[in-house]
């Protein structure tokens, strides 16, 4: 697979390839951006391109067919070390039990010490450049991150540390400041919907999943028909809530706030719906709505509330989303959103 197959990431890929061509790869890279947009793949392609024996390597493009490229793809190249959560590594048969404890859901300090103190103190085996890929880097607990600091400051020669993260801002500032950040963008909804349709999803379902995915192909693919139906019902329910009685809001917030991901997706879908309400106001009967089968509820809302009110609800919903990202209680975030909608 060449770099060109990483869709929608021209900027990040351009940065990496330019650095490779100049032979000036930074020793600490932070590949940051939403889940499921190709960060992990980019890290592997980078390691391949830097160690490729094929003719395309001069253009900073891995051939995918030579010995090093194939070893890296299979995860068995001795100079390309991939560190993941212990649990993931145990599943892949890359983890040995120590002192009888179960594998952690984190990347723990022992794993980092093993790489830093043992593996990186050895000479390179066969590659031109050594890579340590920590994916996902935000799974490192604080001790593990601290154990990596010194190596990030003074890495061994010809070694690049690649931190891959969907939550880069949760890493310690000391880690972030020692890395060159390579930003990966959320994928545009239109492009995601086209991908899903090409994979056989019905058009309406593809649009919905794309709108809910936060720009992540991985997330969009994981939203099946049943998950989408549940989110759609949530929006129907929220469309029917009014300012007079707080009891249904609280019931709604409790039910839909039992799970963080579900609460976040509900908010994202509510934003799509509120946009539909604005479109319905502007274009009337012939409006092209994303959530076509919620048209009656959308028309009713467009007739009942004014544009300024819709925009205020958009703002409140965005605030709830950002609270959810910052670990607020999902039920309280939804309740706060509804209080803001009706009594803000
Ligand atoms: Zn190759």
Written description of the protein model:
This protein is elongated. The protein has a 5-stranded parallel beta sheet with strand order 2-3-4-1-5, with helices on both faces. The chain is built from 16 helices and 5 strands. It has 344 residues and is α/β, with parallel strands linked by helices. Residues 52-54, 62-63, 66, 68-69 line the site of zinc ion.
Radius of gyration: 24 Å
Instruction: Report helical residue fraction.
Output: 40-55%
Bound molecules: zinc ion
| Overall pLDDT metric | 90
Shape: elongated
- Total helical segments: 16
In short:
The chain has 344 residues and is α/β, with parallel strands linked by helices.
Write the layout of secondary structure elements.
Elements (H helix, E strand, L loop, with lengths): L9 H13 L5 E5 L6 H13 L15 H8 L5 E4 L2 H6 L17 H10 L11 E5 L7 H12 L5 E7 L7 H4 L3 E4 L5 H10 L4 H10 L4 H6 L2 H15 L7 H10 L3 H24 L11 H10 L2 H19 L4 H14 L1
Parallel strand pairs: 1-4, 1-5, 2-3, 3-4
Helix pairs in contact: 1-2, 2-3, 5-6, 8-9, 11-13, 12-16, 13-14, 13-15, 15-16
Bound molecules: zinc ion.
Zinc ion binds next to helix 3.
Essential attributes:
5 strands, 16 helices, binds zinc ion, alpha/beta, 344 residues
């Amino acid at each position: 697979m060449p770099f060109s197959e990483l869709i929608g990431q021209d900027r990040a890929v351009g940065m990496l390839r330019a650095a490779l061509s100049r032979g000036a790869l930074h020793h600490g890279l932070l590949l940051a951006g939403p889940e499921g947009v190709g960060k992990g793949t980019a890290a592997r392609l980078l390691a391949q391109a830097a160690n490729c024996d094929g003719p395309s390597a001069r253009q900073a493009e891995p051939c995918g067919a030579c010995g090093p490229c194939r070893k890296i793809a299979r995860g068995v190249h001795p100079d390309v070390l991939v560190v993941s959560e212990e649990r993931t590594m145990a599943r892949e048969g890359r983890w040995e039990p120590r002192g009888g404890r179960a594998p952690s859901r984190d990347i723990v300090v022992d794993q980092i010490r093993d790489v830093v103190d043992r593996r990186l103190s050895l000479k390179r085996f066969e590659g031109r450049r050594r890579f340590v890929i920590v994916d996902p880097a935000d799974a490192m607990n604080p001790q593990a991150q601290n154990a990596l600091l010194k190596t990030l400051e003074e890495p061994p020669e010809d070694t690049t540390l690649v931190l891959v993260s969907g939550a880069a801002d949760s890493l310690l500032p000391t880690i972030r400041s020692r890395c060159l950040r390579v930003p990966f963008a959320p994928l545009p909804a239109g492009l995601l919907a086209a991908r899903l349709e090409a994979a056989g999803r019905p058009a309406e379902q593809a649009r919905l999943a794309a709108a809910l995915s936060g720009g992540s192909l991985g997330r969009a693919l994981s939203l099946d028909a049943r998950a989408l139906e549940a989110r759609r019902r949530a929006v129907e329910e929220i469309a029917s809530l009014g300012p007079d009685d707080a009891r249904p809001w609280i019931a709604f917030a409790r039910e839909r706030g039992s799970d963080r991901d579900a609460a976040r997706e509900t908010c994202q879908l509510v934003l799509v719906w509120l946009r539909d309400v604005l479109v319905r106001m502007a274009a009337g009967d012939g409006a092209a709505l994303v959530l076509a089968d919620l048209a009656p509820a959308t028309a009713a809302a467009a007739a009942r509330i004014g544009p300024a009110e819709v925009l205020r609800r958009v703002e409140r919903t965005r605030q709830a989303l950002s609270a959810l990202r910052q670990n607020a209680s999902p039920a309280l975030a939804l309740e706060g959103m509804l209080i803001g909608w009706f009594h803000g």
